[in-house]
TrEMBL record:
Residues 90-241 form the NACHT domain. InterPro entries: NACHT_NTPase, NPHP3-like_N, P-loop_NTPase. It comes from Lasiodiplodia theobromae. Keywords: Repeat. PROSITE patterns: NACHT (PS50837). This is Vegetative incompatibility protein HET-E-1. SUPFAM superfamilies: P-loop containing nucleoside triphosphate hydrolases (SSF52540). The gene is HET-E1_0.
Length: 361
């Protein structure tokens, strides 16, 4: 498929393509977008999905600001480097329990791979999707595929032709009906074939947050990605440990996994660095004394147990109080019984309680 002629000024749409020159050894010219192209937008609207880039920003705004210390360790991990640089490793699954920093890792990798796409001497493509169980449009597998299609097509008009062909053959229902997952997957595969000269990164965060009867079908399609999509297509997914995923995504020469509990030392080092940055930010923001700063830092290091979410929740709680009440609040938090699910339930409840204005003033 010949790519639509587009002007290229050496920049890329966020999260997307870039190259030095006007084209790569594939079928599509990279670099243009259709910000003003009614043709492209007409067919993208059929997907009825919000730009995944905007969703990622919203999710991160809720979770906490992204700090490099929370994800930089993974760049040196041998399994990750093999996935990123190798020719046969097409699928990497990062799994870990709640609060282990999976979303922050993924968001950090989006930033890094976006930069790679902008500066690569070859052609690099990036598309991603962040699942959220609390949002109906972000917890089904068809939305995942739609989001990946959207980001690829938004950056290269000619890829929209694949949506057009499906629409002309079966109308809008092909994107919403009972067979929508397979139709959309075929569209995604066709797009990837057109990009066979590029390295294409496809990232999906929070698979465990999907609540969809088509979930197992999606996993089977994903597990076959090395067979159905030629070229250097690299999938990276994150989730909590789920047996349904374990049964399908088994390690072999094409698939690998990183278990955050096994990488406890690296995760703990990341958490320690994260604590340092968070405490320093709170010290500056709340004008803490050195004594208060040291007490908070020691408390977090002693109790975090390699859990980013715990650090985030405690810091969110502490920033609601004047400095003279911080130590009292730490005493209250210490009284909570630590444990698995009960710890998280109680911690979430305490930290997210509304604080009366009189206690803050």
């Amino acid at each position: 498929m010949a790519g639509q002629s587009n002007n290229f000024d050496g920049t890329s749409v966020s999260g997307g393509f870039n190259l030095q020159g006007n084209q790569f050894n594939g079928n599509v010219n990279i670099g243009g977008s259709f910000r003003d192209d009614t043709y492209g937008r007409q067919y993208l609207r059929l997907l009825k999905i919000v730009n995944p880039k905007d969703e990622m920003k919203r999710i991160l705004a809720v979770k906490d600001e992204l700090l490099k210390a929370s994800y930089s360790w993974i760049l040196e991990d041998e399994t990750f480097r093999s996935w990123r640089n190798g020719d046969t490793n097409h699928l990497l699954w990062i799994k870990g329990g709640p609060g282990k920093g999976k979303t922050m890792i993924m968001a950090g990798l989006v930033d890094i791979l976006s930069e790679e796409a902008r500066n690569s001497e070859g052609a690099v493509a990036l598309s991603y999707f962040f699942c959220q169980n609390s949002e109906s449009e972000l917890r089904n597998v068809t939305s995942i595929v739609k989001g990946l299609i959207y980001m690829l097509a938004f950056q290269e008009t000619s890829l929209v032709d694949h949506l057009k062909k499906k629409y002309e053959a079966g109308g809008e229902e092909v994107f919403t009906g009972p067979k929508a997952l397979f139709t959309l997957w075929n569209v995604l595969e066709d797009m990837l074939r057109d990009l066979h000269g590029a390295t294409v990164y496809l990232l999906v965060d929070g698979l465990d947050e999907c609540d969809d009867p088509e979930f197992d079908n999606f996993l089977r399609l994903l597990s076959q990605c090395n067979v159905t999509t030629p070229g250097k297509v690299k999938w990276l997914v994150t989730s909590r440990p789920l047996q349904r995923i374990e049964d399908v995504i088994r390690p072999d020469q094409n698939r690998s996994r990183i278990t955050l509990e096994i990488e406890a030392q690296h995760v703990s080092q990341g958490v320690e660095a994260f604590i340092g940055e968070k405490v320093n930010l709170l010290k500056l923001k709340k004008k803490w004394t050195e004594e208060t700063t040291q007490i908070v830092h020691s408390y977090l290091q002693k109790n975090a147990e390699g859990t980013f979410l715990w650090v985030v929740l405690v810091c969110q709680r502490l920033q609601r109080f004047p400095s003279w009440k911080v130590q009292d609040e730490l005493t209250k938090l210490t009284s909570l019984q630590r444990g698995l699910d009960s710890f998280y339930e109680r911690m979430m409840q305490v930290v997210r309680d509304e604080i009366p204005e009189s206690d803050i003033s």
